Amino acid sequence: MRNIFLLALIIGSMFVNGVTKGYAGGWLVYSKPEFKGKVIDAETKEPIEGAVVVAVYSKQAIRVAPESVGITIDVKESLADKDGNFRIPSYITIIDPFAWSKPVTFIIFKPGYGSFPDWRVRPPKGMSMEITFEKFFSGEVGVEKEVWVTTDPWKIGSESKKEKVVFGVVELPKLKTRDERWKASMVGITGYTSKELPLLYKARDEEDKTLGIK
Asked: How far apart are CA 64 and CA 87, in angstroms?
């Protein structure tokens, strides 16, 4: 009985420690901060109202030693307001002891525009899609900071240098052809449907109807 009590006390303290520190390093605790940003037109710099923003929460889990697989834990949506601003609340859950946190990834979609971060919309200033977007959207929106970036994020062994980056602001290019719009609309997450992502799939359906696909 005493050993069981001590074990419960240790697990409880680890859980509380992870929650209070607000990071994803606590054992069994997967914790992510609030994310904020602003979506604007790449040419006019005007806000894009109604852009759908999806945060994808994932973990890396050991399934057959020594192999590990990436698993999506959950997804959360937000809609950009008339000023182009969006907010996704902080998120916390419990994961199994044979898994660890992966950085949050994002999807941003608005009919008629290039989708983020796929295809024409590349990571801001060469930032890594998987590692730094979490920080990019968790800072103060519109604040310019000097950070290390890679000269070509798609090339292995690319050099790094310091550049100024405006945090939280994403510019989407207006698309001109039907083929461009069709490619940009091919966004989604395997295993998730309109039930879990109603805003994203509604926007995609609207685009499909506009393009005559449905």
From this structure: 37
